[in-house]
Each structure stands twice: as structure tokens, then as C-alpha cells.
Give the backbone structure.
Amino acid sequence: MSTRAVLLACLGTIAGIMPAHADDNVPGHWTARIGVHPVDPKPNNHSELTIDNAAGLSLGATYLLSKHWAVEWFSAFPPAHEIHAADGTRIARFTMVPSSATLQYRVGDDRGIFGAYGGVGLAYARIGGEQTKASLSNRTLELDDSIGIAATIGLEVNLDSNWFLNADIRWMDIDSSLRIDGASQGTLEIDPYLFGLSVGRQFR
């Protein structure tokens, strides 16, 4: 079984068995996180091209509307993704900042140590820094920004009343129109999974 499948199964099981508190009326407060998220594009991104994964710094902020409901903003900042031709040759690279805004449902244990959440919302990817080489050398590559759907599931472990650790899995619907020398080359279906670990702090 792949690492991705194991993580999905573990987080899904925890989210399913963890009991929710009955009282849903608590004051709103913020949490902020910093961590690392590898960005793993799906296979078969394009009929003739593939994209490497990349890992980078991530930032997140969550506003807890109540004990169970929250809104989260998230961005990852990986280094450049390499683009390969069908024969494996690296022919281009680009930078991408995948971001999302999600509405989350959260549950926790009675001791206030563990928490789990799942959410859905919108994804936005800012794409730029296109560069070409090898067979595309001296040609112009253009990729558009993307808006799509985002989904996330995560687990938090409270270290004390302020600090916590967070592990999460995210998916974003990121499709970008691709042009070479102004001519359309179809759609680059990036659709990445992001697997991350973060440290966070609560601000009440």
C-alpha cells in the first residue's frame, strides 16, 4: 500500500471515530500554522508532458466560528516544478503557489488533546516564472492561473493550551491552459495532492 493510501486511511479513521462535543457555542478565535508541504501533481498531466513534484514552506490561518465550524486560508510555496517530455527530458519549468479557502467541520476528544477536521472550498493557483530548455529552448511557454475546488482532511495534537502539531492531506483542482509560442497545446492537469506537517499556535 502506498504512503498516500496509508495516510488517507489513518486520517479518515480518526476523523470517523472521534466523538464531537455537544456544546457548539464557543467564542471565535484564530490559529496560525507554519510547516512544509510537498506538492505532488497527479500522473498523466498531459498527453505529452509530465510534471515533477516539489516541497516547500506552507502557511495557514484558521478562524474558528464555533466549536465545530471554521474557515481556513492556506498557501504553499514550493520551488519550481520541472516539466518533462515523453522521453523524460526536462524541457521547461514553472513556479506555482497553490492556495485555498475552505469551510471546515471539526471534532475533538473530551480531553481536548486530539482534533480532526475535514473541509471543502475553493483553490487558486498563481502560476508564473515559465522557462524553457532542451527541445523548447528559445521558445515561449505560457501557463494560466487556475481556479478550482479544494478539499482537505487533517489531524491536530495539542501540545499545551497554545501550541499544537498539525498533519493534513489536501487536494486541489488545478488545470492550466498551456501555450507554446502563443499556440494552444491543450490543458495541463496538475491536480496536486499536498501532504504536510505544521506547527501552530492559538490566538484567543
In short: Helices lie at 3-17. The two ends are 41 Å apart (CA to CA). The CA atoms of residues 43 and 50 lie 7 Å apart.
